[in-house]
Specification:
single chain; 265 residues; alpha+beta; 2 domains; seven-stranded mixed sheet; two-stranded antiparallel ribbon; binds zinc ion
Amino acid sequence: MMSYKLGSVLPLEEDSLHEFKGHRNLAVEELPRWAFIPGTNRRSRTPVSRALNGFLNTGGGGTVYLGVTDEGVVKGLYLNQDQIDHVRVSLADLMSRYCPRVSRSRYKVAFCPVEGTRYARSHLNDSGYSSDSVEPTSSPPSKQTKAHVLRTSTYCWCDRAALALYNQGVQLPIYVIEIRILPFVPNPSAHEDTLQLAPVYQNEEGTSFLRKTASNKSMKYQEIAEFTRLQARNHFEKVLRRQRSMLVMYQNLYTSLLLSGPNIS
Ligand SMILES: [Zn+2]
């Protein structure tokens, strides 16, 4: 977790491991209507989901920073406690919609208070990383029992309540939300020659993305197959190199044993 100062520029750039987002529209259904460019299927804004999906599919992971502009400027997001719950529930919901479903061990979320704002110091109770443990269906957040409204661009009750407070002049705490996708960890008890590939996930749009330097590229079926072939080839080339060097070692050993044979007895 980094520390964030309002208006400062992060010492990072968008690359293969980092993505900045000024909004918190996680799933595609959360994009506001105005984000769709009329007469096209293009959008002026893309859901956070695509970046998360791209980070999963490289196997290497990465972090999305919500509340940071494309230029890396810390803008932050106003959030009350219910909205923090909303983001957690919404993320768990999104990860459950990927195919295959994303395991809890692959992602973490942290709400990082932004310095230079009124609440930055007093509101540190939810700042640490935690594996997201909120089930959207089975266990509602502890402080309230009303379910959050997900998969829609309309305001949830928690957003309307926050907006009402804001309009009354109540200042809400400001956060940068870090969503971290952890790298794929192969099974350590498998034999080292076993091919263990990171799974390729489809996001809630039914599309697989691959993280490039600073963008998320959608993959066609052939590209996924090619990507898998490449990973398999890299793996087995390593196995072959290791086996070949073992073979050379044994051949040398054998030869030296033959040469030294008469001296042994
Ligand atoms: Zn909500």
